[in-house]
Fold this sequence. Notes:
Blueprint: H1 10-16, E1 24-28, E2 45-49, E3 54-58, H2 64-77, E4 88-92, E5 98-102, H3 109-113
Parallel strand pairs: 1-3
Antiparallel strand pairs: 2-3, 4-5
Amino acid sequence: MKQMLIRGELDKIKKDFKEGVDFTIMNAGEFVSDTHVAGVTSKTSVSVNFTDKELTILGTSYAGEMKKGVFGIMHYYMPKRGCLSMHCSANVGPEGDTTILFGLSGTGKTTLSSDPKR
Length: 118
């Protein structure tokens, strides 16, 4: 997860997020949801608990669910802080110009934005 998201400087985080918003991610992809529980209709479940700041993933081995879950959390918190949360990727050109790439999951945003020099 740390490789996919850029963590801000600690001083800025402490200033902007006085209460903190760190979430615990519990990824138990091999453990399926209990469909005998009322309202549970699928063996796959991705659930966010904003009160306890937990993201729980059950019944899927797709690692992208962690990233998508964090995006969902960001889409909730960032507008409250005056920021636009986007599911995108970006390239910075040699002149400092920036291209933003929008697309659905799996459409190649990361591939297109990767630095060919690395």
